[in-house]
Description:
The chain is α/β, with parallel strands linked by helices. The chain has helices at 44-47, 78-83, 104-117, 131-141, 156-163, 192-209, 226-229, 281-285, 346-360, 385-397, 423-432, 463-469; strands at 7-10, 16-17, 33-36, 93-98, 122-126, 148-152, 171-175, 212-218, 237-242, 249-257, 265-271, 274-277, 309-316, 319-331, 339-342, 367-373, 405-407, 410-411, 417-418, 437-441, 456-460, 484-485. Strand 5, helix 4 and strand 6 form a beta-alpha-beta unit. Magnesium ion binds at residues 104-105, 128, 175.
Amino acid sequence: MPKPQARYACQQCGAVAPKWTGRCEACGAWNSLVEEVPRSGPPKGLARQSSRRGGPAIDFVALRGETAGPPRRQTGIAELDRVCGGGLVPGSTILVGGDPGIGKSTLLLQAAAALAAGGGAVAYITGEEAIDQIRLRADRLGVADRPVGLAAASSVRDIVDSLDSADAPDLVVIDSIQTMYLDTLDSAPGTVSQVRGAAQELIGLAKRRGFVVVLVGHVTKEGLIAGPRVLEHMVDTVLYFEGERGHQFRILRAVKNRYGATDEIGVFEMSDRGLVEVPNPSALFLADRQEPGGEPGSPEEAGGRTAGAAVFAGIEGTRPVLVEVQALVAPSLLGTPRRAVVGWDSTRLAMITAVLDARCGLSVGANDIYLNIAGGLRIVEPAADLAVAAALVSALTETPFPADTVVFGEIGLSGRVRPVGHTEARLKEAAKLGFTEAWVPARPVGRRGSSGEGLTTTAIGHLSELVARLSPPHRRIGSSGARRVAVAP
Ligand code: TYD
Ligand code: MG
């Protein structure tokens, strides 16, 4: 039998080349090709199935079958279950990505312990930490007495051999996929080929034995470590665990889910006893807003407030979330003004400053601009445009944004404010948190008025109307031309 030909896989994009080159021809990355020697036989775990020459025939079945919606297994951590679409689906694979140190191991140990407490059989396999480290963490989390099977292993062959039996557990956590290796591949653990090969084996095993496998993968914010990225198409669900290191909030975000909605988020708070679920994120994100001595959101108390902050009524997945958008606008001493944006898209900020300058006669763009979404949340909705504009204008004109008001709407390049979805849910959440007014996009003619208990909605049709409201001569709300729509309770 001829010796298997070596091939070279790019560690950045996964492209395969027959020859080594200094630069990947597919993605242009330098020095990223690593030799891969294809295995000469199937890995041991799969050997018994494909021992016949030519492999077993696959079976074809009809589209209609006895499949009644996927069964779900609740972990007992409601935020996690919701992000997964209502619980974990047996036989499926979940990839949990995130920066190192963000709390992935903590979350999964808590989930494993919660599932075990509910009677599930759980295996937690660590390739990264020592058994003692995990035990210490379990102690700290107060879950040390839960029946979780803990193992330190990194050979996929050993893992497959141990778990490939009828009494396999219900949940297997692999922490992390970058430390797992197949001994049939030559490359080092963590390389694209190892990550892909190891995941393939584990996913196959989970399907065969009907358990849930959770793969942990370290990914930097920019997705720089290519490893787990190549897994995104192989797994059923991709969750990203994110948050600013200095903040205690952590957000679990579904970016792909074959068994539920994407863009759903779960909010946690990192405490000294692990991650605590946050069932009402809005209250948390707005917690620091309260004026000393003043009622949160009490009307007409704007006098003591600082300018440059507006509350955005957003939607994350299916859930409304209120967050504060903060802006600081200062005269620039540099040729190119500084821009620092945390939690939002800087390209969109550039667009909004350009629209404010071109359509509203302001000169925002010439200043240094600092924009921050309070609480460490990252917002991707275009509906936040109007809130960002409100914070910027408020900072520029030094006019505090009314404390009892939320704002949302998408801004077009003409300066027109466009309607966005989920208006009802946004207004309801705002009313629930004690806000009394909302600045919203002007609705198409004939569709005026909306519900939202006791909330006054003020339609903003054009960005200049917002500017008029936040300019010193027009400080009194209601003095500009915008329509004011009273809403029946
Ligand atoms: P960890 O789960 O190890 O992160 P990852 O697996 O994503 O690399 O979390 C590590 C961080 O969490 C560490 O900086 C300490 C912090 N932490 C707490 O603040 N409280 C706790 O109860 C635990 C277990 C960790
Ligand atoms: Mg970890």
